[in-house]
Amino acid sequence: MHRSYDGISGTQVTDRPQQNPSVEPQHPSAIASDDLLKGRRQVWIDHDGTLYCLKATSNGRLYLTK
């Protein structure tokens, strides 16, 4: 593993180790946006009694609004 310093703040920078395919993903509870939207442009999410709207834009971005 290569270690260096960023030269500005003196913070040590470490190269990331190569991914090991047998290791579980860092966020195993992540949900794909396709699984939430299921082909729709927007879905409503009830979170503790407050409604939120999750919208997918034509350029692939997601917006969450109250």
UniProtKB/TrEMBL annotation:
<feature type="region of interest" description="Disordered">
    <location>
        <begin position="1"/>
        <end position="33"/>
    </location>
</feature>
<protein>
    <submittedName>
        <fullName>Hemin uptake protein HemP</fullName>
    </submittedName>
</protein>
<feature type="compositionally biased region" description="Polar residues">
    <location>
        <begin position="9"/>
        <end position="23"/>
    </location>
</feature>
<dbReference type="InterPro" id="IPR019600">
    <property type="entry name" value="Hemin_uptake_protein_HemP"/>
</dbReference>
<dbReference type="Pfam" id="PF10636">
    <property type="entry name" value="hemP"/>
</dbReference>
